Structures are given as C-alpha cells and as structure tokens.
Amino acid sequence: MNKLEQERKKNRVLYRELFYEADKTFKEQLNKLKENFSCLNCNSCCRIRYSNLSPLEIFQLSKEEEAISSEYIKIFIPYGAEEFFSYEKNNEITVELNNKSALAASKDYVNKILSKSEEPVYFYFCKYLDDNKACIDKEKSSLCRSFPNSVTAILPNNCGFSGWQRLCMDKIKNEIEPDLKIKAAEILAYRNNFSCSRTGTCCRLACSEYSYEELKQKAQNGDVFAGEFTGVFIPYTSIEEAGEIFPDYVNLVLETLDTGESIYFYHCPHITEDNFCTIYEKRPNICRDFPDNPLSILHPSCGFYDWKEEVMVASLTLHAMTYIYKFYLEKIGDSHHLS
To answer: How many CA atoms lie within 13 A of 128 on its CB side?
Structure first.
C-alpha cells in the first residue's frame, strides 16, 4: 500500500469517528432546546404513532430483547387489528389494511405522514386511551415521556413541540450555519501561507465527473467554472493514458468512485517540461485558487500538501457538521412545512 492509499484509508476512518462525534454533539445541542417546550395533552401522538416496522417485525425484535420494541408491544396496538389482537399470534396485518384504518381515525395527520415517507408506514394507537381520549396509564411509558425522541419527527399541527422544531431551525440558520462558514473561510485563508512547488500534478492531471462534451454544454449554459476549465484543459484519450503520468494518483482517484460513477482526466497544454506555466499572468481563477478545498486529493509533493495535513481534522469536522446540519434543515422543514 503506497502513501496515498494509506492516507486515504486513514482519512476514511478519521471521518467516520469525527462524523459520529459531530452528530452526537449536534443532537445534544438540539435536544437541550427541547426543555423549553412541553406536551399540551392533545393526545395526537397517542391516537397515531407511526413506524416503518410492521407488527411482525416489532414482535421479532422484541424476542431479541430489543428494549424499544418490547415497550412498544406493551403500549401500542396496530390499526386494522382484530379485537383480541396478539403480537405473538396474529401479527401479520397488511400495510393496506393498517393504513386504511388509520386514515379513518385521523385522515389529515396520517396523510401528512404518508406523503413524507418513501417506505411503507404502519400506524398504531395507545391501548390506554379511554373513550374520552384520556390516558389511564398512571405509569407513563418511556415511549410517551420521551416523545418526540427526534426533532425530525413528523408532528401533528397542534403539537406542543412544534415550537421546538422552529427553534432548532432558527439556531441552525442563524448560529450554526454562519459559524461553520466563518471557520471554513479561516481554513481557506490559511492556505495563503503555502505556495505552489511546481510539481505539475494539478496541471497534468485534472479530473472531473463530467466528460468534455458535458463541460462544454455546461459552459454554454453559463457555468463559469466549466467555461474556465474547458478554456484551459483538454481531455486525455483514455484513463490509461492519464495513468502513465501519475499512476498512483490515478489509481487513488479511481478507488474513491462508487459503483456506476465515472471520472474523466484532463491536462493543460500550457505547461512546460520543467513545470512552468506559459500563461501564468493570465491563468484563470480555477488555477489561481487551486486547491480551494483541503479535502482534495493532493500528491505528497504538492506545495499545499502540508496545508491539507494541518487543517485535515478541522476540515473533516466542518464537512461532517455541514452535512449534518443540512440534513436536519431538510428533515425538520419537511416534517412540519418549516422554512
């Protein structure tokens, strides 16, 4: 395993660890805000509780002593169940029957949940609700006390925790997102402490997920980056031809691709044999700004490689946090029509 491969493997492991910690920290921040809100006793979550697990799947998980499923069985009954329903004996309820029965009980809320879910959803109701929709369970289940256990839960419109979702959206947009942008700008500015060492790697081996024809089309449609790129770089005739220049670098790039993804390699005709640029004073911004991302694959001989190494942990953390906050922005907004 060469140095580039070792680096890539190390960074994948590091990113997983940083992502886990970032997600944990992020959830803790949002969950702390939940303390400002409380249940309004509308009992909507008691009448309609949704899950991607069927009654049979919940029963099977409970047999493996999975705590949440075991608690679910004690509290909730699936819609469409017969009068003397048992999770153990008659748990094969079709999703069609389940959904139809749930819609009869709460049409608007059930339709809202179904419209947001790409997978089949099953609905359940609490067996401790009396005829007046009041709870007769004196020892509240943890499933009830902790609801909603995620800020991304799809809530009924009159839920007391809707304000929690709005507050989280406000914190992400007005505090977390701007702070991450400031930190990203600081990392990029630190790049100015380093300089090109004229290895010629970036000039002789630029790569893009788009073919030359696709880039030309994007340029015609007003894409500035594509216009600058096609104005300088020309494609290799094949990946094999590119591999003759920097084989370890090409192989590493190919290893990062997911199944079905493509990559195209390009080179600049303006570089001399001793790695000088013949259009240096008029070079486009994509050359002046390179590398503009510390997570780019850089050859160890690159003059910016030490910059990449120094800011790697901070950059991976920012990348993880950015992915996480965008995920929550989308999910929270989608779950309750917030924007």
So the answer is: 16
Residue 2 above 70 pLDDT? no
Domain limits for position 117: 43-150
DSSP category for residue 217? H
Give the separation between CA 326 and CA 84, rounded to whole angstroms. 45
User: d(Cα 236, Cα 327) in Å, to the nearest integer?
Assistant: 37
Does 219 lie in the same domain as 300? Answer: yes
Count other C-beta atoms under 10 Å from residue 268's C-beta. Answer: 19
| Beta strands, E only, 80-181 | 122-126
Cα 161 to Cα 41, 108, 289: the distances in Å are 11, 18, 46
Model confidence pLDDT, tens digit, residues 150-209: 999 999 888 999 999 999 999 999 999 999 999 999 999 999 999 999 888 889 999 899
Alpha-carbon gap, residue 155 to 328, rounded angstroms: 15
What lies within 8 Å, CB to CB, of 31 at 6+ separation is 151
Virtual torsion, Cα 180, 183, 188, 190, nearest 10 deg:
-170
Same domain, 140 and 235: no
